[in-house]
Amino acid sequence: MNISRLHVCFGLTLGLFGSSAFATSGNIDFEGMITSSTCPIEIVNPGDGTIGNLVNMVDVEASRFTAVNQDRGGKTFSLRLSPDAGCALDPANPNTATVTFSGLADLTGDHYAIKDSGDPAKGVVIVIKNKLGEIVKNGVESSPFDLSATSETDMEFEAFYRSSSLPVSAGTASANIGFVVKIN
Description:
Elements: H1 2-20, E1 41-44, E2 71-81, E3 96-103, E4 112-113, E5 124-130, E6 145-146, E7 153-163, E8 177-183
Antiparallel strand pairs: 1-2, 2-7, 3-6, 3-8, 4-5, 5-7
């Protein structure tokens, strides 16, 4: 009987020593970008010329969405590029620029999902269009804009709420959308 107790005690002691030498490992992801230009871009409200990174969408009643893929509440905004702000623009060789917007994608992957902010609207996404009315898909370059080497260039877009399913329910309808301007 004494021998079996000794084996149990010895086994427990080895188990305790074995766990103290246990180590874990993992990975850390770092994300970033090294850019070739420090050309500042301003977000402009063409209606009153105010500059800032907030585009105030208009309020839209949920009942105005009566079918899927209806756009309501358009808000125009521009990305302004100034040649005197350190942007390398060549007057002899006119430059163009494209804009890529990216954010949390909707189910189609083309548009921008509404962020979950406590009481979000349901059945709507945000869609961005260029000045020709063409949709600028999430993560896809826009059509090119001609840039002026001597004066400001406003690259104009319009944001809409788009019904993605019915019924659309009331709630906050906001999204964080990043952008990258590529000068060619």
